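Researcher: I've been going back and forth with a colleague about how HTH-type transcriptional regulator ArgP might be arranged in three dimensions. Neither of us has a model we trust, so I'd like an independent prediction. The organism is Microbulbifer halophilus, in case that matters for your notes. Sequence below.
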Amino acid sequence: MLDYKLLFALAAVVEQAGFERAALVLGLSQSAVSQRVKLLEARVGEPVLVRATPPQPTALGRRLLSHVQQVRLLERDLQGQVPALDDGGPPERLRISINADSLATWWAPAVADFCAGQRVLLDLVVEDQEVGFNRMRAGEVAASVCAAERPVAGARSVPLGAMRYRALASPGFIARHFPNGVTTAALARSPAVVFGPDDFLQHRYLESLGVAGAFAHHLCPSSEGFVRLTSAGLGWGLVPELQVSGELARGELVELLPERPVDVPLYWHYWRNGGELLRELTGQLVRAAEQLLVRE
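Model: Here is an independent structure prediction for HTH-type transcriptional regulator ArgP. You can compare it with whatever you and your colleague have in mind.
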């Protein structure tokens, strides 16, 4: 049987980024919080925290945190049904994995009113859309925005729409690398910008043009930095259309192959036993995505 006082101590340490702040939130001494985490580790037979700055959960610790979050969501539902149980506690915290491009574009306007109205705090884990689903599979998050369609056992998957990407470069870059126009051969020889080692969008784009194999590219694990590098002429890249309407209008970025956009479908995954709050958030996201994303 799990002792939830121990689990809540673990959650407080991770959410508050340290034992001292966790102690303040829980109304305990720092040593008492530490003892609860040690007792939890003794019960489960392995570490649940890496004692770093800030402390980081181990793989087992992440699974326990996901369980704690689901318990909190179910308790929130019960408090709504039985008002006498509502102790006026802190806002609910949702741990969600999301791709950086969604975070940089449509996510904030889609959830802002919901979070304010429902008193929800977000703990966002930024991953490439190709691998964010792994967080869900590992039980580390309550929900995920990713490119995987099929849900894991115990979860649901809802299609949101697609993000449209366009191959862009600065006018200066185009003048240097494509003096005779954009050709497949010239594109393959030109440096690109890639988000990270798990991002294969540019690779698949070149393959669709008949170019296979390695190509020169910068790695830039930041959506905003990606646009800056592309605008500065360091390389060409596939950029979300939503993110660069201003740069396109001002001529700071130019589309290389206007007839070949790339649509990346996105799906919202959430635990079936995540309670009414996750179901309401799902409805809000579906409605917002109809206005913000490309409908396939």
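Researcher: What would you highlight for our discussion?
Model: I'd start with this: The longest strand covers residues 155-169. After that, consider the following. The longest helix spans residues 59-81.
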